Amino acid sequence: MSVKKNEKKIQKNNKRIGYCLRCLAGFLKPYKAGLILGILMIVVANATFALNPIVEGQMTTQLYKDGEAILSGEPGAHVHFDVILGVMGTLVIIYIIKTVSQLITAVFLTKVLQQTMYDIRNALQQKIHRLPVRYFDDHAFGDVLSVVTNDVDTLGNALQQTMQRVIGAVLTFIFVISMMFYINGVLACMALVIIPLTVIVTKFFVTRTQKLFDTQQNTLGELNGTITEMYSGFNEIILYNKQEIAVDKFHDVNGRMRKTSFRAQFASSLISPCISLITYLAIGCVAVTGCIFVIDGVMPLGNLQAFIRYIWQINDPLSQISQLSAQVQSAFAAMGRIFTLLDEEEEEQVGRVAVRPEDIRGRVTFEHVSFGYDDHLLMKDVSFEAKPGQTVALVGATGAGKTTLMNLLLRFYDVKGGAIKIDGIDIRDMNREELRQLFSLVLQDTWLFKGSIYDNIHYGKLNARKDEVIHASKMANVHHFIKTLTGSYDFEINEESSNISQGEKQLLTIARAILKDPRIIILDEATSSVDTRIEKMLQEAMNTIMSNRTSFVIAHRLSTVRNADMILVIDDGDIVEQGTHEELLAKKGVYEKLYHSGMETENGTENRPLSLEKDEQITYTCV
């Protein structure tokens, strides 16, 4: 049973390697002209390399003959320097051809491989933007980042260092073995014992170390994910005095990285000394037999010298390949991760119905929608209608499904049953890109990129004029703040966006959303990071932009809930109550308890988050 399992693993591994090579060949195909020229130059370089020993051997043979003639006292015997100089001239030409060929190979192969890595990085970047949201729910950000950076670098470095040497090794085998048989068939058969023994040794180690290299690459991805997580949450780690826990977690992953790397590198490094031992034994046998042949006059001394050189030429590529086995195995492990990511299922973009934003009024209908992230349904039967221009507030406990509802509307996920329609059109019939052009989304977690404030706001509508950007900033009440900065709209935001406050970042993202001028607005607790003074100005701006537009607000403040045209109370993914503020209070149900326990004060107007007392059976909160 264990043998069958081992055979299945080997077959599976061979299929994966073959698949990776086919995928890599697809990326290399556009540059096949440069690749072919580079390979041709490798052929020329290795052909001249194989000619060197036998040409050098001609000098030795000539000197040996001339020495024998002189020592035997033959009349007119002398050293034939003209022959030796001719051989030396031939060697110089061979060396020049070899050097030029290697230079041309280096130029073309480097260009081809670096362009291929450029294309792979672009393909990964484009792929990431086409992946569904659920992929990133299941994969750590640091691990995905490791594929794009570390795995591509590992593959590029391995190809740069191994392709020329591996192709050269194969050609060296062909040329050198041919020259060996040309010199002496018996000695060639003795020397060729090196090859099967080397293959057996190499296969023995490679089959046992590939799993180690796969583990090494996966652990490297985990290490990157841990580092990214720690640095992104650095302030919280310091705040809660969890430095020791963070360091221990890093030491754990780093320790496993050290152990897996040591095992993989150590196991692969054993190949080279084993191959060298086999080569030394072969040289000893050939040297003894060859000397007998020379003494018997079967072969010239120079040919024996050349033959021993050829054995070393066989050993050289064998040793190189064994030394490169670690890089080759790392490259295959990296390729497996790269092409696994590239093979992930993408979001379907093509829609059956063409949609233009100017034709959409903004009527949103949920018709008996059911949805679950797995086989368990979170939403069983959600139905409501938001009319054009209405503001819909979503309230409910954390994890009740408020954000999930909006994710379905944006088609980050598709419904399991029922339908979501905009102006009567099922959103599954729309192109995802055209669908998302209808929305502006403002999240509690802000996202700004390194660049000027102008660029960050302009990101919402790339064809917007500067006066439109300024107008959007004024509507978001952030224009005055921008003017106080050095450089005004040209002020540079750093990579962490740490040179502006959290509230100011929130205002900039709202200005970006205003600039887009969408038909439908989604505010996911968008004002939670803004102080009371700024919120008042912001609320005025939001009232302006929400007028005549359908708006969905995950409620955080009392004023938002009270002024909403419709309030949806959500529990465990389903809508348990819906209506206006007054209608829901009159029902004296869940919302009424939410209001009196968490929102109502002596004057009834304080902006407090929705919550319930600890002793209440219902534990809704709106955060």
Main attributes of the structure:
623 residues, alpha/beta, ABC transporter transmembrane region fold, six-stranded mixed β-sheet, four-stranded antiparallel β-sheet, 21 helices, 12 strands
Description of the molecule:
With 623 residues, this protein is an alpha/beta fold. It has a domain at 2-229 and 257-342: ABC transporter transmembrane region fold (Up-down Bundle). Helices cover 64% and strands 10% of the residues. The protein is built from 21 helices and 12 strands. The chain has helices at residues 2-28, 32-71, 81-130, 133-138, 141-183, 185-191, 194-232, 234-239, 243-269, 271-295, 301-342, 402-409, 432-436, 453-458, 466-475, 479-483, 502-516, 532-546, 558-563, 581-587, 590-599, and strands at 364-371, 379-386, 391-396, 417-422, 425-426, 439-443, 451-452, 492-493, 520-524, 550-554, 566-571, 574-579. The chain has a 6-stranded mixed β-sheet with strand order 6-9-10-3-11-12, with helices on both faces. A 4-stranded antiparallel β-sheet has the order 2-1-4-5, with no helix packed on it. The chain has a two-stranded antiparallel sheet with strand order 7-8. Helix 5 runs antiparallel to helix 11. The radius of gyration is 36 Å and the shape is elongated. The relative contact order is 0.08. GO terms for molecular function: ABC-type oligopeptide transporter activity; ATP binding; ATP hydrolysis activity. It is found in: Cell membrane. InterPro entries: AAA+_ATPase, ABC1_TM_dom, ABC1_TM_sf, ABC_transporter-like_ATP-bd, ABC_transporter-like_CS, P-loop_NTPase, Type_1_exporter. Residues 364-597 form the ABC transporter domain. Residues 36-330 form the ABC transmembrane type-1 domain.
